[in-house]
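Data availability excerpt. The first of two example chains:
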Amino acid sequence: MSDALPYTVVEGIRCFSPEVASSYADYPDDGFDLTDKSGESSFWVRSRNRLFKKIVQNNLVTSHKTKFLEIGCGTGGFIQKIVENENLEITGSEIYLKGLLYAKKNLPAVEFVQFDVTKGVIGEAFDLIVAFDVLEHIENDVAAISNINKMLHEGGRVIVTVPQHMFLWSQLDEIVKHKRRYSRRELVTKLQENGFDISYCTSFLFVLFPLMLISRMFDKGRSQSKSDDLALGKRVNFSKILNWIFDCFMRIDEALIGLGISLPFGGTLVVVAKKC
């Protein structure tokens, strides 16, 4: 791509947006530590990885290896679930260097780049781009969607997930520096207006939605006296038994979505779209 951003190499990683690599303006830096340490113990992380892996597998190119990019890969947790798929040529990108250093340590054979997707494109074109729980951290999400479209081959696909329903807004959204929670109409419209046709759209975290709603209502009224990293850990860490119970309920969501059902509401919105 002739309009690709220039890059510099920092700690062995190509940095296309080095000016923001250590700013942590849109995500708490302690979040990477927490994810790397305890991500696999979380029912939410396990469930989303299972579901997203299946959706990725359903959207691979059949004629050749799928050139794959994850926007906002964090510490590389999802890529670890798909790295053994020989039909994928994987690149992981993250705006913050701290997450990439964890990812590179965990997956030394994978190509990782530092990149602010609102600022332009990198010099490659992809068949499939995913952005899992990323757009809500970005002030100019329209620029991000537009640049994702530019980095796709004709007919390429994007898989996007975002937190859903502004009435669920709570202190947790503020701690992790969300800019918004989305309605289905808002995300679908933004994708359509930036060169995408919608292939599939569903809510996720459907069965557990009543518990999530109650939890968020209590969280709105909770006083914030602890540091953000301690408060974040308290809100996302559960006992082993609760993680096991919630994991079982999440498998119902996964099964329904696997049947092609579009769930009407839930804490997360999942959209698969094709470049026009």
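And the second chain:
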Amino acid sequence: MSFDAGLKAHLATGATSVCHAWRIARGDGVVMGFTDHDRELRFDGVVFRADSGLSALALQQGTGLSVDNTEAVGALSDGAIRETDIEAGRFDGAELTAWLVNWAAVDERQVVFRGTLGEIRRAGGAFRAELRGLTEALNRPAGRVYQKPCPAVLGDGACKVDLSQPGYVAERALEAVEDGQKFTFDALAGFDFGWFQRGRLTVLSGAAAGLVGTVKRDRFLEGGRVVELWEPLRAPIVAGDIVRLEAGCDKRFETCRLKFDNVLNFRGFPDIPGEDWQMALPVRSGETSGGSRR
């Protein structure tokens, strides 16, 4: 990546007017800008606030694949980064871009870091967030696993199921909520028992809007429909909030065929031998049908 010519010439003068700017893009679409300058900056359609108290430790980046050793440090405030949003997980994995900027001419700027937010720690009205560079993704194991279940995520590019089709999605208001984890609906007509199990629940309104949970159980109970998540949502959610339920998939070939009519895109290997095949013994009878021998 070449260095910006204008900024390079400015730095060569020896009398500089530079600062840092950060852009955070959360998974729910919210974009926030911060700077350590004493006045706000504007570029790329983002306002970079000067009153956020956000700063960053010196960047230590190398050519290896380890997590870049740097942190973002800032104060928690209602107008900038709120503790409730961190607790709810809204900043988990958020994309972050950092620039070195000539505040007197913001067109003279250079990206010095691009990555995501990692572990976030809170204490004493402040937070410290680990910054993870783009090479972090290269540390993850990759490759195809040969197994009976389908490894694709329902609705992704490999699966290709269109979840917007009728019968796969339901949007309803909650009748009751228990511990932010169990949700009761008065009626979900047209959906079989367990239809949403292993699916997703997305909150569309209220204080928890934008949060997503994975469905553990979907069952009928005392005349209503109860949907339970594996983990409670980390923000207040109350009766009357609107949620979106998406059908779940247990990754089996039969489910792909009968529930989603998507056999052509099934990514598993349903006929692969199971672990009991390792215990098979050779015989002379020539019978290889797998049936019992008498």
